[in-house]
Design a protein that fits this description.
The complex is a heterodimer of chains A (about 140) and B (about 160).
Chain A (H helix, E strand, L loop, with lengths): L1 H20 L9 H14 L3 E6 L13 E7 L8 H11 L1 H5 L4 E7 L1 H6 L21
Parallel strand pairs in A: 2-3
Antiparallel strand pairs in A: 1-2
Chain B lengths: L1 H12 L28 H10 L2 E5 L9 H12 L6 E4 L4 H11 L6 E4 L2 E4 L1 H10 L1 H8 L17
Parallel strand pairs in B: 1-2
Antiparallel strand pairs in B: 1-3, 3-4
Helix pairs in contact in B: 3-5
Classes of the chains: A alpha+beta (about 140), B alpha+beta (about 160).
Chain lengths: ~140, ~160
Amino acid sequence: MLRGQLVRQLVSMAGRVCLFRSSAGSGPVGPVEAAIRAKLEQALSPEVLELRNESGGHAVPRGSETHFRVAVVSSRFEGLSPLQRHRLVHAALAEELAGPVHALAIQARTPAQWKENPQLDTSPPCLGGSKKTRETP
Amino acid sequence: MSGSLGRAAAALLRWGRGGGLWSPGVRTAGSGAGGGGGSGSTEHLDALVKKDKVVVFLKGTPEQPQCGFSNAVVQILRLHGVRDYAAYNVLDDPDLRQGIKDYSNWPTIPQVYLNGEFVGGCDILLQMHQNGDLVEELKKLGVRSALLGEDKDQDSK
């Protein structure tokens, strides 16, 4: 009986671990994150797609899906300028960007470029946004 | 000397706030809509982005950025010794905030214009800084990057 309980616990823990591992950030994958991932996969057929919900580091309520960082690695970016690459990403995520997503940090690389530096960078710390009062020094 | 300058530059770029090192001749103009159209109108923004060689739209001001990404733009310009640029605070003006997104067809702030041409946001400016493109683009504008004054043999990361 005890062993059964232990197994159930381990299985449920493993499930939670898998859920966490599917997003580079902490916490379960929300609907916005899932939509971003799906749309980028459909639009750009990326070889690598790393997505991190960075909302936790900003002046927004817990569980928000407002600030993201994404690394998209796709041969579709070959020959395109950074501006053109970013515009492709924006186009795929037009709905999210017009809606809940407030900030999107983009690393748009070709497979060769990604190989040179395969990592999702970190974003600069939040400085309060529009909620910061003018009186603070 | 150049070694410590390099380290200072690296620290600044690690999202530090180099407040007060020097004050750029920044025009933190209120986007006051003189002439036709509101502050978010195409005509007005067209004029704004062409009025100065380097124009940035930020959350906050260069002295007091209110967003980490906007701050990154300020720090990069500071590193290159760009003193004379126009900075517009979108948090002061909702029409400007939405207007510039429509005008640039770009959904986020900060936004950077060089010689009237849209360059991109923080990520792109950072990339240009890291790969040397920013030095070149500034040179085309007749602006000599402060980083050219450093040891030319120094590896750029």
